[in-house]
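Posted in: Structural Biology > Protein-Ligand Complexes

Title: Requesting predicted complex, nicotinamide-adenine-dinucleotide in pocket

I'd be grateful if someone could produce the 3D structure tokens for the following input. Sequence and ligand are given below.
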Amino acid sequence: MKYLVTGAAGFIGAKVSEVLLNKGHSVVGLDIINDYYDVDLKQARLSPLLVNDNFLLVKIDIADSIDVLELFKNEQFDRVIHLAAQAGVRYSIENPMAYADSNLVGHLNILEACRHNNIEHLIYASSSSVYGLNSKVPFATSDSVDHPVSLYAATKKSNELMAHAYSHLYGIPTTGLRFFTVYGPWGRPDMAPFIFTKKILNGETIDINNNGDMWRDFTYIDDIVEGVTRIADVIPTVDSQWTVESGSPANSSAPYSIYNIGHGSPINLMEFIKAIEDELGIEAKKHFRGMQAGDVYQTYADTQDLFAATGYQPKVGVKEGVANLVHWYKNFYKV
Ligand SMILES: NC(=O)c1ccc[n+]([C@@H]2O[C@H](COP(=O)([O-])OP(=O)(O)OC[C@H]3O[C@@H](n4cnc5c(N)ncnc54)[C@H](O)[C@@H]3O)[C@@H](O)[C@H]2O)c1
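-- Reply #1 --
Done. Output follows.
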């Protein structure tokens, strides 16, 4: 099958591309390779993909509607896995317009291109951040998600709404995936697991938000990718019996689905830091501080829908996942 993977130089996109190629698919990887974080890391993720004859890299900004439409017309994809976005909660406080361009205009351009090119299935990245002010756990796709606490989260919720409108209007099968704090080798330098590993190794002090009283459903990269590739085969269909009153918000009369992909067992932030300290054999210098703007107290995925649809549930535990992250970090940065 021919896949488009947007955000292919990114943490999740590079691994998704690799797994699709290993399964024998051909992949066009789209990425603007922006400098939101270390471009060398993005290039290094791409290097092994670029030697594969079934992989083609295109440097396109998804906010450019003409380029996106032309790519779809020329390549005629079967399926689209749309992961390109301006990620990060904290950055959205300082740079809101980057989120409008990549996450709103960019997402709309992908939907428009799907509309005009007969795409079998559009799978796109949403986020656990859409649960915002929700306090009932675990977070279920049947819960209301109308109270985001960052612009990033608001754009991800918007992506789900835009996808629903296009599924309804044009019959495009769309699936939104709410990822829960992804970590592991080749991870993102703006996220806590990477920052903690780097700073502890350098002997620098780490900032601990909300004085360590936070819970995160850390999910290992391979589990996320397994979920994404399995869901790609679960194409939503029209359900004429569905109504707003009787059905789940994660489904529709249109070919539309939403799933959580998370480990389903949150751990305390201090426990996660301890796992990194243990793996490194170094005790972190810690600076405790208050809650940061845009942050949520806890995340915890209800993964029943994912399991029902795919027979799969994320399984890599924190000890193993952190060991792999630390091992990769030391190798890659030669420390
Ligand atoms: N990593 C997580 O914990 C997590 C959690 C929830 C949701 N997500 C979502 O999953 C997706 C992938 O996340 P990631 O961690 O791999 O992020 P990432 O930043 O590593 O990858 C995103 C890639 O998209 C590219 N990109 C950004 N704007 C673009 C544009 N306008 N045109 C073309 N390319 C563009 C970037 O260059 C980058 O390589 C994102 O949509 C993100 O919001 C990630």
